Amino acid sequence: MGSKITVTFGSQHIAIPEPVSFVFETENEIITKVDVDVGYVHRGIEQAAVSKFNFNNVQFLLARVCGFCSITHAGAYIHGVEQLLGVETTRRADYLRLIVTELDRMHSHLLANGHVAEVCGYENLFMQVVKYRENATEILEAITGNRVQYDYYQIGGVSRDLSPEHIKMINAKLVELRKNVLKMRDFFETDYTLGLKTRNVGTITYDMAKEYNTAGPIARASGLRMDARNEFDFLPYGEVGYVLQTRTEGDVWARNMVRFDEVINSIDMSLYAVNNLPEGDIKVKVKGKPKGETFIRVEAPRGECFYYIKGNGTKVMERVRVRVPTYSNIPVLRELFVGSLYSDAQPIVLSFDPCLSCTAR
Amino acid sequence: MVKMFIESLKNLTQKPATIGYPHTPSPSPKDYRGTIYYQEDLCIFCDLCEDVCPPGAILFEITNAAENIREYSYNPYLCIYCHACVDVCPKADEGCLVQAETRLAPLGRDSTLPQDVKLGYFMAKVTEAKNLDRKWDAFEARAAQSRDEMAEFKAEKKRLKQAAMKAKKEADAKTKAEAEAKEEVQAEITIENNVETKTETKKEPTKIASAMPQLLTEPKDGKKDDLTQIKGIAEKIELILNEKGIYHFQQIALWTEENIKWADENISFVGRVKREKWIEQAKELLAKK
B246 FRET partner, CA 20 to 30 A, in A1, A41, A186, B46? Predict the structure, then answer.
């Protein structure tokens, strides 16, 4: 047995796209102790939301919390404000919101899976995934006007409508994407070398997932049947064919598989929604200022996102509290490292798809 | 593993999925959210865009408080391209605020700044990219100061108005009391004469302040001029003018200072006639005719 060595992983590390710091204490290759610091990108967004911005502008601020979940943050806030104002959106607006939210989930999941392949040393597969992912981002750019900051949700509806050309284009690209994602899933499922790095690595059991209060694809990969899309009807998931995806293995491989399954489901839902768009306006007029308090739970790509908002009848909100999925996934991540190989640390972190910008805000 | 290997070999023979930027230009998608362009002659100075802009990239500086003249300024490097200002603009359909489909190039230390009137007064004045942020900060402070000056000016105006009202009331009360006294005493005619002359001189300036121009009940020869040819008069304002009895360029060309004040009070937003030079335009159009 060798002596103990301290290895730092982050805050800047080539494997992780965002600043998070892990300090491992290792014995030979085995990690025995771990310290986590997630607060590197704190920007004071919650305070800015209640001091610098009017309530009808806060969604632009919250969308910039994080590039990947921008639609979820803005969406959660706007669902809350609409609840406080008593606004009923039209069915067409709901469908359009659903399409954009699911497209966002698709490209986020695909990139997360690609990153896992990349840190396992399989850069070729990563490039392949990113190449196919481009279809989803191109659709988003065409229908919202930007690749990352969609600013699509507005209080009372959405900012733009879909034209017949858009629908034609979305259909063509999504069908192509579906074919490619099935091919990708096959690679991830059957690849022998990738399997060596991902199968039976970082396994979370069902009990562990329940005890540590995990969220999102991480929980579903361990067989925990939880999804905010299943519980709340802010968006018409019941009508478009939503299916809860679970796996039971609980390792890195299962998390990837759950994400692929969800991408396929999202594509099916989007295709149905695009081809069965209800007629009507995309926006209703909104009057008044929010008063009272409410909480919202929506499913971000990384898991359940919780919003608590409180208005006092003035232009500025009194409180906007954000609790993001990565925050609830950190404890189990910490537990998972102890006893695993140091070389497995990168795939484990990336399989959690951590979003530190959201976590620190 | 074998499948991916075959796929990789296929990729080797395929065209690259990326584009050869900067040798080939990056494709610009339709309806992309880009730079905001502004047209002053369509603006009604409602300030809604300034209020709604999340980063505060749109600012109006009040250059003349007395005539309420505002200048639009926009910082494209502060803009987050969220489209909120265009959504809120009441004249967006006519082209007052428009979002272009391309963005300006990112700001570098030596980059040349775009010179476009439609980007507003701030970008027209700034020529060097160096210290643009600092210049914008200084401009922000100046705009805020102009707001304060405007508020002061308004408060002063209100105070003067109230003082005038008060003085008038006191004078009225005085004349009333004196008249009563006169009735009772039936004497001292000289004082009464003095008071009368005083009140007469007081009334005259208020009368002149907003004199009505020459108005017609119907157009001469039954044929009216197309007033929308004057820049700044849209169809809606033309309707209002026609209702009031103004049908011809000649009528506008003959307006005096007092007539302009009347127009400010009765037709349009304050200062608009002067700012958009309606009278000069009307004279030109009249000469062309």
Answer: B46
Interface residues on B facing A, Cβ-Cβ cutoff 8 A: 1, 3-4, 7-8, 11, 17, 29-33, 52, 54, 80-84, 87
ipTM of the shown complex: 0.73
The sign of the CA dihedral B240, B245, B248, B252 is negative
What integer pLDDT is reported at residue B190 of this predicted model?
56
**A343 belongs to a structural domain:** no
User: Quick check: is A258 in a domain?
Assistant: yes
CB B258 within 8 A of CB B209: yes
For residue A159, which residues of chain B lie inside 8 Å, CB to CB? 83, 87
Q: Using one digit for the tens of pLDDT, what is the confidence trace for B113-158?
A: 777 777 777 777 777 777 777 888 888 888 888 888 888 888 888 8
**Structural domain count, chain A:** 1
**Which stretches of B146-200 are assigned E, i.e. beta strand?**
none
Residue ranges of chain A with per-residue pLDDT less than 50: none
Residue pair A250/A223 in contact (Cβ under 8 Å)? The answer is yes
B33-65 pLDDT, tens digit per residue, is 888 888 877 888 888 888 888 888 888 877 777
Instruction: Show residues of chain B in contact with A48, CB under 8 Å.
Output: none
Give the nearest partner residue to B8 out of A124, A191, A193, using CB atoms. A124
pLDDT of residue B207: 45
Q: Is the peptide bond before A70 cis (omega within 30 degrees of 0)?
A: no
Whether residue A334 lies inside any domain: the answer is no
Domain that holds residue A205: 41-318
The more confidently predicted of residues B191 and A165 is A165
Name, in order, each residue with C-beta under 8 angstroms of B212's C-beta and a sequence gap of 6 or more.
Answer: B259, B262
Q: Can you list the domains of chain B with their CATH numbers?
A: 31-146 (3.30.70), 220-288 (1.10.150)
Contact between B1 and A145 using a beta-carbon 8 Å cutoff: no
Residue pointed to by tokens 């942020």:
B133
